[in-house]
Amino acid sequence: MVRVGIIGMGIRGRLYGRAIMQNPKAELAGFADVNPKTLKEAEEFFNVKGTTDYRELLEKDLNAVIIATPDFAHTEPAIEAIKRGYHIMVEKPLAMSVEEAERVIEEAEKRDIKAQVAFENRWNSPFIMVKSSIDSGEFGDIYGMRITLNDSIYVPTRMISWAARSSPAWFLMSHCVDMSLWLTRKRVKSVDARGIKNLLKKQGIDTYDIIDASLRFEDGALVHIFSSWILPESIPYVAQFKFETYGEKGYSNIDFTNSVITNASDRYYFAGLPTLWADIHNRLTGAPIWMLDSFIDSIEEDKPVIATLEDGLETTRIVSGIQRSVEEEKEIKIR
Ligand SMILES: NC(=O)c1ccc[n+]([C@@H]2O[C@H](COP(=O)([O-])OP(=O)(O)OC[C@H]3O[C@@H](n4cnc5c(N)ncnc54)[C@H](O)[C@@H]3O)[C@@H](O)[C@H]2O)c1
Known about the structure:
Layout: E1 2-7, H1 11-21, E2 26-32, H2 36-46, E3 50-51, H3 54-58, E4 64-67, H4 75-83, E5 87-91, H5 98-109, E6 115-118, H6 125-136, E7 142-151, H7 154-159, H8 168-184, E8 188-196, H9 199-202, E9 210-217, E10 222-228, E11 239-247, E12 251-255, E13 261-264, E14 268-272, E15 277-280, E16 283-286, H10 287-300, H11 309-328, E17 332-333
Parallel strand pairs: 1-2, 1-4, 2-3, 4-5, 5-6, 7-10
Antiparallel strand pairs: 7-11, 8-9, 8-17, 9-10, 11-12, 13-14, 15-16
Helix pairs in contact: 1-10, 4-5, 5-11, 6-8, 8-11
C-alpha cells in the first residue's frame, strides 16, 4: 500500500485525492493547504485530517507526495519531500526557472525514488493514438505542428487566484511543449515568441493575455503554439485545444472542441470533456486518474515513470525561453 500525502488541495489536489481513494494500492494519508477554508473543505470531503503547514504533513509516515500547489510554488515542497526519501509527482510546469528545476533533479539524483511530472496529456487517449501513428511511421518524418490551447477568461480571473504569477506560456503552453517533444522525440534549437498584455492587466492581473510562440527544432522542424486565456465566458469551453501534426507523408488533426459536451438551458455552457475525464457511477476515469494510477504502479512494481523530471526540465527550459523571447523581443537560443 502506497501512503500518499498531497500538498495543495485546490482543484488538482482534490482530483488526485479522489483518484487515490479509488486506487486499491494507495491510501490518502494526509494533505496540506495554506488556505484554512480550502483545508477544511477537503477535510470534510475526504474525512482525513490535514494541516496548513506542508512540513508537518511530511513528518507523517508517507511513501509518496503529490505537489499540486500553484505554478510558482512547486520547487520547495518537492525538494523537502525528496529529502525525506518520498516518491513525488509534481504538477506541471516542474518549475518556473531552469535553475529551480535543476535543484529538484539534483536532490532526486541522490536518492532511489520515483519522480513524475504531471504532464497528463501523455495519458490522454487522442494523443496516445497520434503517438502510435507517428511511431509506426504512418506520417513519415514530422516537419511541423500547429497547436492552439486557449482558456476562457474564467480561468485567470475566477478559477485560479494566482494568474498574475503565471502566464499562458507557463499554465497552458507547458502542455503543448511537452506534447511536441514527446511526440516528435526531437530537440528544440531556438524559440521566438510574442505576447500582449492589456485586458487582464487592466483588471489588476499583471500577466499576458495572449502568447504566440514559434519553436525551431534542431532538424529544422517547426512548431507553432498559440495560447490565449481571455476568451469570453460565453464560449462553451473552459479550454479549447486543437493539435495538428504535419509529416512528410501524412497529417493528423486532434480537435477537442469536437468532443466537448455543450448544454443549452438558461445559458449555453461547457458541461464536460469526457475524453479527458469523467465521473462514471462514482468512479473517476480519464487522463489524470490513469496518470496517478501509473505513478502508483511505477512505485509498487519498480517501473520507470512515463514523464520524468528531465522531461520537466526540458519543458521548463523551453517555456523560460518563450517568456524571455516575449519580454526581450528577440529569438532565444535553447542550445
Ligand atoms: N496537469 C494538468 O493538466 C493540470 C491542469 C490544471 C492545473 N494544473 C497545475 O496544477 C497546479 C495546481 O493548480 P490548481 O488548478 O489545482 O490550482 P488551485 O489554486 O485550485 O490550487 C492550488 C492550491 O495550493 C494551495 N497552496 C499554495 N501554496 C501552498 C503551500 N506552500 N502549501 C500548501 N498548499 C499551498 C492553495 O491554497 C490552493 O488551494 C498548478 O501548477 C497548475 O498549473 C495542471
